[in-house]
Amino acid sequence: MNNPVIIIGAGLSGLRAASLLTEQGIKCRVLEARDRIGGRVLSTSVPNRPDLGRFDLGPTWFWPQYESHMANLVKELNLETFEQYKEGEILIERFQIKPPERCVLKENSDEKWVRLTGGVQSLIDALVETIPSEIVELETRVKKIQLNEAGDITVEAEHSDGKIEKIPAEAVILALPPRLVAHHIEFSPSLPPNLMTEIVKKPTWMAGQAKVVAVYDRPFWREVGLSGYVLSAVGPLEEIYDASPINGPGALFGFFGMPAEAREKMGQDKILNLVADQLVKLFGSEAKNAKAILYKDWSSDTETTVKEDLSPLKNYQSYGQPPVEGVWEKKLIFAGTETNSQYSGHLEGALQSAEQAVFKIINLNI
């Protein structure tokens, strides 16, 4: 190959593709619009308290008994894992004016929900260590991809200083949500109408969601026989789980039931006050003593979400590989969790799609 393979997006899928290509001796560059790696993987610390650990505001779990690519990569990178805490009773909140009910949840004892010590970001950090540092370029936004009559590809990217770089490429791996491709990248010649229709139909996983983590000095709910798992018909959080690290502080994280537009209208301060009130109602007065409440609304993240994603998630059946045909065939390869039909929305899906993309590159004989 004379020119590099250009990978757009430095999330799990893009970084895995870069690692595999590097392993094969194939030149590549990873162009990322954000100022950080990880994409929708986001593990963050309490401001001024890194000693409390990192907490996931993006994906949290994987299931090694089903997800072999994740399990194998975690083992290969020598990462520490632990099982999600599920001992004790769950709380069910049915009514605003009544206290929650405690009950025992019968779990499938063979099913392991596994978390990474240090958060999922530890996987991203370990993966990027397998790639030469100059390969990943942050704050580099791809604006246009051109294909001439001779079959040569040029990727036009804008750097943070406003400079435009035109990069010759052998092929392009689109390792970002398909709807972002449709909205933010210009193609010349234009993508076929059926391909554009297909990628616009694919909802971006997590794009309409928000996640909150309340961090405490210890997981006090365990002391009274609670697992930290809550199902609520009241809200604002409709599902809550124990997010504590394996040692040290305690944490609870939750998903919101209210739609993105309602959250935007209400504003972050009011939302977090409602969250704090709900946690006190569920877990008692000790829940007032949060060290911090961490919040990420993915629906307001323009590097994740487009306007079509603000509606509730639908069209699961549209997940899978888009049909790239005509002049763009063998030039454009989609990767990312939305392009894997079996494990869409999972870390496993992001990994499998990256491996499939690299397999295609190797077999292009370019």
Produce a short descriptive summary.
This is Amine oxidase. Residues 109-358 form the Amine oxidase domain. The protein has 366 residues and is of the alpha/beta class.
Descriptive notes:
The protein is of the alpha/beta class. The protein has two domains: 1-42 and 63-80 and 121-204 and 314-365, FAD/NAD(P)-binding domain (3-Layer(bba) Sandwich); 84-116 and 208-303, Polyamine Oxidase, Chain A, domain 2 (Alpha-Beta Complex). The protein has helices at residues 12-23, 68-76, 121-128, 178-184, 193-201, 260-266, 268-283, 347-362; strands spanning 5-8, 28-31, 43-46, 49-56, 81-83, 89-93, 101-103, 114-116, 136-137, 140-147, 153-159, 164-169, 171-174, 186-188, 210-216, 226-232, 237-242, 250-256, 292-297, 332-334. The N and C termini lie close together (6 Å).
**What are the low-pLDDT stretches, counting only 5+ consecutive residues below 50?**
none
Task: Quote the CATH topology of the largest domain.
Answer: FAD/NAD(P)-binding domain
What's the main sheet like?
7 strands, mixed
Tell me which CATH architecture of the largest domain applies here. 3-Layer(bba) Sandwich
Series of secondary-structure elements, N-terminal to C-terminal? EHEEEHEEEEHEEEEEHEHEEEEHHEEH
User: How many helical stretches?
Assistant: 8
Overall average pLDDT? 94
CATH superfamily of the largest domain: FAD/NAD(P)-binding domain
Helix content: 10-25%
The backbone outline, from C-alpha atoms, is elongated
End-to-end Cα distance, whole Å, is 6 Å
Percent of residues in β-strands: 25-35%
CA-based gyration radius: 22 Å
E-strand count:
20
What quaternary form is this? Answer: single chain
What structural class do you assign from the helix and strand content?
alpha/beta
Strand order of the largest sheet: 7-6-16-17-18-15-19
* Count of structural domains: 2
Protein name: Amine oxidase
Organism: Neobacillus bataviensis LMG 21833
Domain Amine oxidase: 109-358
Family: Belongs to the flavin monoamine oxidase family.
